[in-house]
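Regression test attached.
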Amino acid sequence: MVKKCDAIVIGGGHNGLVCAAYLARAGKRALVLERREVLGGAALSEEVFPGFTFSVFSYVVSLLRPEIIRDLDLPRHGLHILPLESTLTPLPDGGHIAQWNDHDQNRHELARHSLRDAEAYDELGRLLHQMARAVRPLLGMLPPDPASLRVRDLASLARLGGHLRGLAPEHFHALHKLLTMSSADYLDEWFETEALKATKSASGIIGTMLGPRSPGTAYVLLHHYMGELDGVFRAWGFAKGGNGSVSAAIAAAARRFGAEIRTGAPVANVIVKGHRAVGVALESGEEIQAKVVVSGADPRRTFLDLLGPGQLPDDFVAAIRRFRFRGASGKVNLALAELPRFAGLPDAGPHLRGAISISPSVDYLERAYDEAKYGEFSRRPYLDIVIPSLLDPAMAPPGKHVMSIFAQYAPYALNGGWTDARREAFGDAVIDTITEYAPNLKGAILHRQVITPADIERTVGLTEGNIFQGELTLQQMFFFRPVPAWARYATPVPGLYQCGAGTHPGGGVMGASGRLAAQAILGEKA
Amino acid sequence: MSAHAIVIGAGANELVAAHYLARAGRKVTVIEAYTMHDAEGWIPPPIVRDLGLDGAGLKVGRADPWLTIPLPDGGRLALPQDVMQSAEAIRRVSPHDAERWPAFCARMASLARMLQTLYEAPPPDPTRGGLRERARQARLGLRLRGIGRKEIAELFRVLPMSVADWLDDWFETDALKGALGAAGIRHLRHGPRAGGTAFALLHRHVGEPPGVFRPATSNVMDALAKLPGIEIRRGVEISGIEVRAGTVAGVTLASGEHIAAPVVVSGLDPRRTLLDLVDPGWLDPELVRALRNIRSRGVSARVDVTVARAPGFAVLAVAPSLDFLERASDDAKYGRISREPYLEVRAGAPTVDGRYRLNVHVQYAPYALAEGDWDAARRSALGDMVVHSLAAHLSGGDDAVTERSVLTPRDLEGTAGWPEGQPHHAELALDQFLWMRPVPALARYRTPVAGLFLCGPAMHPGGGVGVAGAHATREILRR
């Protein structure tokens, strides 16, 4: 043992960096160990092709907690969010439907398709806004253990119960519906325009092996309204310079508070002595001691790879083994010579500055899911497309563009496994799909990068390529994330904590897991 | 003519409600509105006791083996009621699954016990803060905790799961998972990979012995009809429920006859009761909207066949794997009849001429077809397909079946009053569960019309023989 510090954080993803920053801010000597040479985990910017910079994996900022932005003073460290103003859904018949952040523009556009939907949009918006307000405190709460009799858990449960009881009956019932319904069924109660229902319900399936008609997918609709509440920026936005600059800003803040960050330092295992985590061993053989070890890796890596066998109770190991990952999505990053031209729309209108969603109908999404259920990628996948170079021209050479395409479903467990040929076939399916709506796309491609769930797992270390470090389904949320009774960041090994998205509230470039983990550590060590 | 209480419908819930009301001193007239099918499922012991059903000749039958599963090699897996014996039967297929079977049965039993605790009383209403309601909820909470604190957390974890994930966590044998998973999708449009289907499996296990995942059958309908104390009028048609000054006044029959009563209890589905039979002017528009949003998608047909030879099973589940069920549901998702449907065959007692009646549940046969409608040709084609599929499982092959009759979801809507052919009236899903069943404003069996109550399967708990009827009377008599 050559070195000693207060806390080692395994993994320099955004949650690990947030955790380290908070620990350092509280005066702890924190050391972040990142396996790769670059920081950020899946929140990463990279010049993949000369002159073309991509947010290689995650590509938008939606839920980054405002208290983190404030506490870590991220704008001073270079974070600059550019708002996404719209979502465009092109239709197979050459038409389109768009949703705009601007209320009047949005109403006008929706009324073009259905007057009733334009009305319902406002009404649903008001309801979800109120619901988001009701649910938001849960995101910042340490989940209690419902089976525990400890005063802390009982008090926390009572607070949770009181919170739910405090809701107006209609909000309580709406929350029940959002938690248990499918997004398609829920939206059927509000809208009649297929493409609107499909585009909105797509948010419920992102990163999950469920179709839009499966119960449990409606909850995510709420997320879109939570970001807006924060008043800092709109629900969806780009980080200037790509999502790597989110990580870079957090890392800069962490360093300023005194944290040390090492890249190219892969951890081989957590060292346990006398049933307590006392440090880590690097793959280089170096050992580092610490009072506390915090893993930003997902639960399977943390408990099955970084810990040796026999250090955990059997039922805990069984619970980790059944925790579901099932990566369902991939990415295609394109360097473009020109912008795509969608049928019936001007070449470079404002519609290209927002998200472009290939989700013409709920049946379209269900068909995409059908193929994935039986181990094939969708031949006509759901796509969420952004062109960051329109908002941040520094991402591409002058006159040229970068296009980021999130594509689902691409099941991790592909029949026969992911090979180079299958990866390119998947890329072709994605490009062919867009070309149906924007015929010039194929000819405009200068370079392409196709990323499968297997690539995500290999590159970033996310098990089965799941972008949320584990499916965000009801049975894996809140006090079940990742294991019932172990949802408060501590683990059965004293001194070992978790801070990744595999813990509550998990998922997205949110940072909440990292912050709550730091609070749990500081609370117990204080 | 007048009565103290009118009960609309002559199903198990309605008859149980009628008898409880009669025992409370009401004069009760039951109006049979639809053809009733056999009631399946658990009968809560208090109902048997209160109504003296044993004295009325109640016989509950559970086949042993309770399920027969065809195997891919042509053999069959028969599951006896005894857990250890069924484990031994499973061992021939998979030692791994046999090892896990007893623990699975025990876990399912304890989870189902928790659901049963929730089902034994009208649903709690967490949005009501009254002392009485809070005390009720506290008692319920204590009873649940009594079953096990860890089990509460486990129940919350399992309910939203897909039945496929839940079974994959336990077993490896496709045939076993398919047959068990079928109970999780029965009467739902979803496939076994959809969330909330683990709840449906658990719901169907409530009240059944550990290790038995099919409901019991009984002659409860006969027993209920035989009990004295109520008048049942059969073969009449109801045309309206009269309301005066926001209070129910009675019912009108299609014949024009009017029956006055201060209490009307309807076992019909809430939409039919409130939107068709009551003048909608009495309802708040928000409630009308909520009623229209109740999901009641019917997905199954029923085919009755007669065969010449003994079938060699009591209940046969043709659901070879979870993927098989999922593919069958894929068709229904787009409004098509499954090309290879899930079949569940229940054998009846031999007839006087020595033949056997088989009742076949066919899923998916969606009520709303994407193309065309349920005409005679489609009904007949469905019958052909079922007879053909069945042939593989009966001795005598294609010639085994001598007679058949087909009830499509549309037929079941017309004859049994199941909205869209959905026997639960409101689909059994977590968003239509407890205080949400069928919609929050009606969860306590009362309607906005004073004196008009609901007691059908759309009401909590939506399962078990007569349970909703018993709860409804509790609310009526509380007035």
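Expected vs. actual: identical. The CA atoms of residues 269 and 306 of chain A lie 4 Å apart.
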